TrEMBL record:
GO biological process, any: DNA-templated transcription
Name of encoding gene: dmlR_8
Domain HTH lysR-type: 1-61
PROSITE patterns per UniProt: HTH_LYSR (PS50931)
Keyword field: DNA-binding, Transcription, Transcription regulation
Keyword Ribosomal protein in annotation: no
Entry protein name: HTH-type transcriptional regulator DmlR
Tagged with keyword Transcription: yes
UniProt-recorded Gene Ontology molecular function terms: DNA-binding transcription factor activity; sequence-specific DNA binding
InterPro entries for this protein: LysR-type_TF_proteobact-type (IPR058163), LysR_HTH_N (IPR000847), LysR_subst-bd (IPR005119), WH-like_DNA-bd_sf (IPR036388), WH_DNA-bd_sf (IPR036390)
Family label: Belongs to the LysR transcriptional regulatory family.
Amino acid sequence: MTPDLLRNIAVFAEVAKAKSFTKAGLALDLPKSTVSRRVAELEREVGLRLLKRTTQKVELTEEGQNYFASCRRLLEDVQSAHEELISARHRPRGHLRVAATVDFGLRLVNGLTRFAAEYPDLVLEFDFTTRRVDPLTENYDVAIHIGAPPDSGLTAKKLADVAVHVYASPDYLAGHGRPLTPADLSAHACVLEGRLHQIGIQNTWTLTNGRRRVEVDVKGTLSFNSIGIIRRLILGGAGLALLPESICRKDVEAGRLVRVLENWSAPMLPIYALTSTRLMPAKTRTFLDFVQANL
């Protein structure tokens, strides 16, 4: 790839993004005539019209849309390589806006003081919410998403797969008996998860044992969009619940909770970080490294 071709691609991408030769020229600090010339050179090079020009607006042709999508990824990779070299010499700094659930934030609390001390030039702003956040349109650097990521133009980076099991307190099991098969769950009080992952109240639990997979209808009068509150309730004997293994481990070791149906588990729960682009500055990469280490 010649330097001229790379420059022309970069100019075309800016025009495609701005839908304007004038705005692209301002963004690139180039005269409008130079912007137009470079796009024309690129069209001659590929032998196709990439843009439809009128006196009022600039639109992409179908070929231009496909070409822009490919060029954008190419330019992001080039910029990412450049950013990695720059960030190797500079500490993460600036303002980082993160959207996540309260429960997820609580899992990071113990390490945040150390993280903040290690990166004093980085300001972290957390917005705790259970709704689905779009980092691109809502001006977030990172949105933590529990479950399979939405089908969108966002970049999804998997942070972890979380094991999920059925738990209850010893007191509840002493008073109501211990389920021996997944079907037994239907006769028990269950504390349900409600709208934590935008899927409504989980009245059906899916459990797997090797290649075996069953779906069980469960019932309960309590539902919450907070894993932390569900855990507190079953510690008090409210019933059975599906909970991440990681937040129950200490309770199980201390005898406060018991894993029931030991051979059965819910499907692994993936956790993703959603960003508006694959091009992540040092502040975002450093934060996500910290999150992965704490998960």
